[in-house]
Amino acid sequence: MNQHPIVTSEELTKIIYLIHQQYGYDFSNYARASLERRVVRCMQQAGLQTTYDLKYSLTNDKSFFDWFLQSLTVNVTEMFRDPTFYRDLREKVLPKLASYPVIKIWHAGCATGEEVFSMAILLAEAGLLERSKLYATDLNPANLDQARQGIIPMQQMKAYTDNYMQSGGKNAFSSYYTARYEHVIIRKEYRSNIVLAQHNLAVDQVFNEFQLICCRNVLIYFDRHLQNRVFQLFHDSLSPLGYLAIGTKESIQTADVRTQFETISLPTRIYRRKQ
């Protein structure tokens, strides 16, 4: 009977160092307990019993590392996730953004794109999509490749339709995609204003100025130090009076920049940068 793989804190540090040295991805300030669980899960899926075997595979097999990165960084995502959040965007944020001649929005940690597609639909229904540019970034290039295709499994669409309607959706949700066998494709007009690019929140810098930044359910994987760095990055990336949205299980209260934001909606974690 296979034993449960064990990854000690020292071994985890060595794995993090190896990945950083060989591939340039820095996981040193990710929440350790969560990272350890995901490494163990990857080892189980790959049938590896020891961290020596894991390090050997990471060192000598680039395709294994690509799979490992995908497994390690994948985020749970869905269209119109937390419908009350999207309802608050419709009612409290988009009317303010409408005053800008060009609206720039950053989805940081966009995973496979479901939430940025949701934003595009929201903007379209508000008559704002044509003058909006949505920047969707992720650490994992495989996520970005999938997002570029705009393909979503058909089996997800009933739940996504329910989310959309609860968020205050104005049209038939099926009008936003084309069905193809077991999948759907988000219509091109709702993807054409999306720019997909690789960006690492742990090390990369400001690359534009935005009126809204969404980074939902990503910060929970970071330790306090990295969370603080990312909040500073978001503050510096927002225009004055720009909006920041984070996950419902995340908090800005421990960040050094917390006094630079006012709360727009605490239940849905929407904040606004002060002047």
TrEMBL record:
Q: Outline the extent of the CheR-type methyltransferase domain.
A: 1-274
Q: Which PANTHER family match?
A: CHEMOTAXIS PROTEIN, CHEMOTAXIS PROTEIN METHYLTRANSFERASE
Q: Which GO terms describe its biological process?
A: methylation
A Pfam family matched in the record: CheR_N
Which organism is the protein's source? Spirosoma foliorum
Per UniProt, which keywords does this protein have? Methyltransferase, Transferase
SMART domains per the UniProt record, alphabetical: MeTrc
Which branch of life, at top level? Bacteria
Q: What InterPro entries does its record include?
A: Bact_Chemotaxis_MeTrfase, CheR_C, CheR_MeTrfase, CheR_N, SAM-dependent_MTases_sf
GO function terms (MF aspect): S-adenosylmethionine-dependent methyltransferase activity
Name listed for the protein in its UniProt record: Protein-glutamate O-methyltransferase CheR
Instruction: Supply the PROSITE patterns for this chain.
Output: CHER
